[in-house]
Specification:
single chain; 303 residues; alpha+beta; Phosphorylase Kinase, domain 1; Transferase(Phosphotransferase), domain 1; 2 domains; globular
Length: 303
Amino acid sequence: MELFPVLHELSERASRYSVNLNGRVSRTLGRNPLRGGTACVYHGTLKPEGTEVAIKTFYCTRSGSEADLKSFPFKRLFREVHTWSKLRHENIVPMLGISTEFDSTFSIVSDWMPMGDARTYVQNAENDPRPLLRDITNGLYYLHSHELGPVVHGDLKGPNVLVSNDHRALLSDFGLSTLNVSTFNMTTEATRGGSLPWMAPELLNDFVASKESDMWAYGMTILELFTRSTPFHDCRSDASVVRRIAEGSLPARPAEESTQFRLSDAWWEICISCWRSDPSSRPTITDVVEKLEATTVCTLSSH
């Protein structure tokens, strides 16, 4: 099938930053994809190695017009390819390449993570969230101190953290991420980003995502993994969540039994500090690393 003009242009642009895997990736038949707001994630195999891969296939329009390249879905796609392709770290899901062979649209190919996401993983109470939080901290430290300039994740939460075969946490889903130093041949507008229960209050007022809003989400992710529940899970509607965040009505410290007695004072103090209403008063991820090392909650290494 001949590519739509916009898809061909998209492929050419994205191929500047990633390996084109056309002809080397096959999707697994009979296995239902995971469906999200912007893409489906299929299981597949990379040839000739036989490596298991995830194929993130985007929902894209098929009009083939030049205007499509300027639409938000495509800008988000460009941002994801551009940013993700520059990330190399043990706590970041590796991006292997791109493909334009599926569903007349565009796909990003990455390592398959058989253990699923962090939220699902900790539903088994025997799985201690603290090693995952160590890995998340290391991954976020890498992003915020990237050599090309700080990378803002923009949508940090348990479902966007995947767990590898050896039980490491790896950050994923960089569709809302921004790399401050951009060499991509297209302007990508900043976006506020985020998912509501993890969203910093300034993002409700159309501020753009920042390292500071990442830290707010990091605090909510700590709470999420210790409690195995979405932040503000007691709210019955999005409007209630928005009201709680806007009013500064923060989550209460959960009962020790609900966290398997794992949520120490040190971890809870980190949560509270990440939820300060003034973004400039929140700790940096470097501050958190130093605090955790000082309190011997866990040993963190920077890469």
